[in-house]
Design goal:
Strand order of the largest sheet: 2-1-3
CATH class: Alpha Beta
Number of domains: 1
Order of helices and strands: EHHEHEHH
Helix content: 40-55%
CATH architecture: 3-Layer(aba) Sandwich
CATH superfamily: Response regulator
Strand content: 5-15%
Shape: globular
Distance between the termini: 18 Å
Radius of gyration: 13 Å
Number of helices: 5
CATH topology: Rossmann fold
Length: 92
Amino acid sequence: MLMLAYNKEDYNIDCGKGFFGRFAEHGLSSRDAVIRSISNNAQGFPLLMRRLSGTNPPTAVVCVNDTMAAFMMQRVRKPDLGADAGQLCRLR
């Protein structure tokens, strides 16, 4: 699992019951589970694609808000990324 978030404080991620807290509850390391070095969506997309094309890609991607999620889904679906990229993202 991978969480994409902006490089600012966010209660939903930082609090004990947030993203990091839930990982700890299940004995999982959150060290590589977060990309939080971006200040806008466009900066996050290349980082997301790098992780998705890596040797151990996440099986789920969670975005900090709907705006970021919509941006990432639209970009992943662009035809110039290849046929497989479209399979990464489906609306249900």
